[in-house]
């Protein structure tokens, strides 16, 4: 019988520690499928962050680094400068990339570092217990904004894709979502483009993925996907914010 | 080969290149600027990469990436910048990555000043960042010694898969001295089967310092401890100067050791039996230098450009068997030879207790 669906080669056949309804698993799979499809598994090096996806280094079967909180773009810079013919990606959450690691992501983008960033935006710090993230929406309740995020106290959520797309060093910046199958397919397309941009040596590429965190949002998996679509997408519009002419 | 005149900071750069280092990541800070200036020109000549980072935090993490990818790599900074790097140095130690970190120590705490100091001794020799680890620390005292120690720094980093710090001060970095560079060798960097360079058909490699299971982290800590014990037993380095029959022994490193050599000479001319131990490795501390002197000397005088940091290691080495005194200047001020001579005279023959 013909096998029509199988685990990507680039993912290890082990259980993950992610919560039920967490979308990290979907995004891991998309990245792994793209690595397989582009036939770059053997020369790909990934960088895992600090946060829920810290153990990404156990799940991706390529060579991996574990980086300190927020510094994955600096680590990836060091790797790529030493091994320019390898494919390098970082996988970072919103606390990692959009708070403590803003310096590193902005300057890696500005330098046009030729690696790919997968940026998971779930509007919360999940690993540490559901605290406010830089991407937490106004009014959103978290363990450190029990009355809802207040602009007068906490300011406004950061729009990373919009910010980075104005930098000359970025070649490809897209924001996607994985709240339903149609969007998952679009997300896969964007991730593939980001890696293709890297392979073509065109510059820095980043895909922001709007993701669900049912555990820390206090919602069921199905409710969480609905909440994402209804609340996050209006504030974080989807689309390709920047793309080189070469990828059409 | 004829001698050439070089600044200490430039000598670090040339020494690194001659040791096979091809990657430098760093952020500007005084008083080590001549080093990045030198390497920004020099590294592209040898096919290497010089990259100015957005911060010291980024620089040390670029070092982490480059080292994990198998490169001979270096960064440099001074006090405040080294403080910013400490998290990254802890990760490098935890992941057992070889690299060289230069600290041209300046006055502190806080912004302090840009004048020479030795006030980062504790930070350098006690690990510096979080967790239970050690960094090998080399303290050159001349521009020539910088050239010689840079090769050793990279070799030790590789041999033990551990960060190595080269600790100098503003004077050493800025002073010009004639140096013998010797013939440029074709350096063969030892193989790095552990490096994460893409699988290329091989086993998966992981550069990591996370051991979430306590039993596993304890095993990792104990493995590191065995490595540190091996380093401590094999890599102690020091210079002895006129220790023959010495009653009072000065202990000083780096720039201060040069001042103390003049102190020793002056004291000897005046008939005082004074000698010097100059630690070259600050960690591992050269405890072995002290053993032969036990029971044969009256006392030790530790001279530093700080409020008394290395003096604690001398006291540990002497372990109560002789008095250990301290004389220091700080804030960027240098000990003056005449003042140290006065201090020696005060203590010589049992005074000052």
H/E element string of chain B? EHEHEHEHEHEHEHEEHEEHEEEHEH
**How are the strands of the biggest sheet of chain A laid out side by side?**
2-1-3-4-6-5-7
| Greatest interface by residues involved | A-B, 33 and 39 residues
Class computed from helices, strands and strand pairing of chain A: alpha/beta
Helix % of chain A is: 25-40%
Q: What is the CATH topology classification name of chain A?
A: Rossmann fold
CATH level 3 topology of the largest domain in chain B: Rossmann fold
How many domains of chain B? Answer: 2
Unreliable spans of chain A: none
Notes on the structure:
The complex is a heterodimer of chains A (248) and B (353). Helices cover 38% and strands 17% of the residues of chain A. Chain A has ten helices and seven strands. In chain A, strand 5 (170-177), helix 8 and strand 6 form a beta-alpha-beta unit. Chain A starts with 23 loop residues before the first helix and ends in a 6-residue tail after the last strand. Chain B is of the alpha/beta class and 353 residues long. Chain B has two domains: 4-234, 3-Layer(aba) Sandwich (Rossmann fold); 239-347, Rossmann fold. Chain B has eleven helices and 15 strands. Chain B has helices at 8-18, 34-45, 56-68, 79-94, 121-125, 143-160, 170-174, 214-234, 254-269, 310-318, 337-347, and strands at 4-7, 23-26, 49-52, 73-77, 99-105, 136-138, 163-169, 176-179, 206-207, 238-241, 248-251, 274-279, 281-283, 299-304, 324-328. In chain B, helix 6 (143-160) links the parallel strand 6 and strand 7. The longest helix of chain B is centred in the middle third of the chain and has 21 residues, at 214-234. Classes of the chains: A alpha/beta (248), B alpha/beta (353). The interface between A and B is large, with 33 and 39 residues. Strand 2 (63-66) of chain A pairs parallel with strand 9 (206-207) of chain B, so a sheet runs across the interface.
